[in-house]
Amino acid sequence: MSEELTEQVDEAIEEPEPEPEPKPESDPEAPVLEERLAAVSAERDEYLALAQRVQADFDNYRKRAVRDQERLVAHAHERLVRELLPVLDDLERALAAAERHEEAALVDGVRLVEKALRAALEREGLSEIPTEGGFDPHVHEALMSRPADGAEPGAVLEVVQRGYRLGERVVRPARVIVAG
What we know:
Structural class: alpha+beta
């Protein structure tokens, strides 16, 4: 019996023959699954593109809202400055009249108010438009022209009303008389 047993053990130790791999069966649902996969992939790409467009639209909206807010603030500053400019003009006229009549106390009081108002407006970005150097139609408004000896045509002879800028914008052009 030992021989038989040995033969059985030898047979068991021998490597079994590899089983042939099964042939892939043609799955009748394979084309349907591929179509569904392609459709789902296309839908995913469409949703991704839509999400990217929505993100870009939101970024543009946010930038536009910031610009609108800045424009609104600038407009509010400009409106305030426009309202205060006549007050500044009146203070200048009061100073000129008081100096002619030599009322020192009134002159000093008005001068302090005028300086405080001018400083407050300058802190908000107001600057006076210079009138030296000739007439510039972008920042000056010619009220009239008159002949002047020794002055070149277009030279500013007299400033009737000072002009001001708020930042880069002309709030009020300087009203001037020019040489003709």
